[in-house]
């Protein structure tokens, strides 16, 4: 996602959602649909206690069908510590509770100029890192977004129902288009939130793991689901031979309490990013020990005495302590007590050792997976097959509800 969809980081069930969606909470859809398409803000009720060690989950003791999460990361640049701690590490816990599909969002990777020679390799590398980080193919399906063509087909159908005003208000489009310049901005950069909505709605998601910077896109997804349900669902769909009712489930956000925003090593106010010009600003999961140690040694710090959490004047300190906490699995209090009297030199050595110890097994497993191309091909093919079986049902329902001649 790195629009953690989505870097975008998504859930499905045959039962009703745990939380009541805005569709059943007094929203006057006919009034808003007659309006000029103004985008409304939602007061989300989030599950905000997910962590790698103990995911926040609804009580499923009386539910036989697991909820489903679908999420992904772009294959642009190297997967870094922010992607891992903010998304992938949480997936490992979520796959034990939910039915999960994790995909590589290669279609999202082409919204800005990219290297065509590297896209295929980067896609395979990203999939291998998913598995190396602990995604278990006996519990989760791993696939490539473009291998399930329903993503693009549904995007086009949804585009016909998406007011252009909704897309013009997307903050990320404004920021990225301003940086890239008009000549380097394609229509896909404007419309990719519709593709993101397709990624989510295609699998009838109940919950969507999102970072704070993706909440606006999920709001659009929810609005779009409600709009399509109103325009084409219910009795209108039933008259066309469908089952009637809602076409799409309206998803709720699932936001991890920690790790969702790992900050840059060179700027404590900026998120760690693949697109940052300096590789010094991020820790890549495949960085060798000497490279990693050099990045930690040179990362930006401050001149305050001691180390402490939650001081707004010390963003770099808070970021590095948080990384150490997440990597070691220690509590915040344990880290605070351990590090409060340390100087930066001592702490950086400890942090480096912790990162090396944590990332080394991932790097070894990654090399093993990459040495067996046939294994990776089988994993991706099986994942795409499972995903397509689910996606095609949704897509066929949408075609029917929108009045298309059935195949």
Describe this structure in words.
- With about 400 residues, this protein is mainly α.
- About 45% of the residues lie in helices and about 5% in strands.
- The chain contains 14 helices and 5 strands.
- It has helices spanning about 30-35, 80-95, 115-130, 150-160, 165-170, 170-180, 185-200, 215-230, 235-240, 290-300, 315-330, 330-340, 345-370, 375-400; strands at about 70-75, 100-105, 140-145, 205-210, 250-255.
- A 3-stranded parallel sheet has the order 1-2-3. It has a two-stranded parallel ribbon with strand order 4-5.
- Helix 10 packs antiparallel against helix 13 (about 345-370), helix 11 packs across helix 12 and helix 11 packs across helix 13 (about 345-370).
- The longest helix is centred in the C-terminal third of the chain and has 29 residues, at about 375-400.
- It is globular.
- Mean pLDDT is about 85; it is low at about 1-65.
Q: Strand order, biggest sheet?
A: 1-2-3
List segments where confidence is low: pLDDT < 50 over at least 5 consecutive residues: 1-63
What's the Cα radius of gyration?
22 Å
Judged by helices, strands and strand pairing, the structural class is mainly alpha
Q: Which oligomerization state do the chains in this entry correspond to?
A: single chain
Which series of helices and strands comes N to C?
A: HEHEHEHHHHEHHEHHHHH
């Amino acid at each position: 996602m790195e629009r953690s969809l989505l870097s975008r980081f998504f859930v499905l069930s045959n039962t009703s959602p745990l939380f009541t969606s805005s569709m059943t909470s007094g929203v006057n859809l006919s009034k808003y649909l007659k309006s000029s398409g103004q985008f409304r803000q939602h007061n989300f009720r989030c599950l905000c206690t997910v962590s790698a060690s103990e995911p926040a989950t609804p009580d499923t003791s009386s539910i036989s069908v697991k909820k489903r999460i679908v999420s992904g990361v772009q294959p642009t640049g190297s997967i870094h510590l922010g992607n891992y701690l903010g998304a992938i590490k949480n997936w490992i816990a979520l796959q034990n509770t939910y039915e999960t599909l994790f995909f590589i969002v290669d279609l999202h990777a082409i919204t800005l100029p990219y290297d065509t020679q590297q896209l295929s390799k980067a896609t395979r590398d990203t999939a291998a890192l998913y598995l190396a980080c602990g995604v278990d193919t006996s519990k989760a399906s791993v696939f490539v977004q473009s291998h399930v063509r329903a993503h693009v087909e549904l995007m086009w159908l949804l585009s016909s129902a998406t007011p252009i005003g909704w897309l013009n208000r997307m903050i990320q489009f404004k920021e990225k288009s301003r940086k890239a310049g008009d000549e380097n901005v394609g229509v896909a950069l404007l419309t990719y939130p519709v593709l993101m909505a397709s990624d989510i709605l295609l699998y009838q998601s109940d919950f969507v793991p999102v970072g704070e910077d993706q909440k606006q896109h999920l709001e659009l997804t929810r609005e779009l689901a409600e709009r399509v349900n109103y325009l084409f669902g219910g009795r209108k769909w039933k008259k066309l031979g469908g089952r009637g009712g809602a076409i799409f489930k309206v998803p709720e956000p699932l936001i991890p309490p920690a790790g969702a925003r790992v900050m840059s090593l060179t700027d404590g106010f900026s998120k760690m990013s693949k697109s940052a010009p300096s590789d010094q600003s991020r820790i890549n999961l495949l960085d060798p020990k000497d490279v990693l140690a050099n990045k930690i040694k040179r990362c930006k710090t401050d001149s305050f005495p001691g180390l402490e959490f939650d001081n707004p004047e010390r963003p770099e300190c808070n970021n590095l302590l948080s990384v150490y906490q997440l990597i070691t699995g220690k509590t915040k209090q344990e880290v605070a007590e351990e590090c409060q009297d340390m100087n930066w030199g001592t702490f950086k050595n400890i942090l480096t050792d912790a990162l090396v110890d944590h990332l080394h097994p991932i790097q070894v497993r990654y090399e093993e997976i990459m040495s067996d191309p046939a294994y990776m091909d089988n994993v991706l093919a099986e994942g795409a097959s499972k995903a397509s079986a689910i996606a095609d049902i949704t897509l066929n329902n949408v075609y029917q509800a929108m009045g298309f001649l059935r195949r």
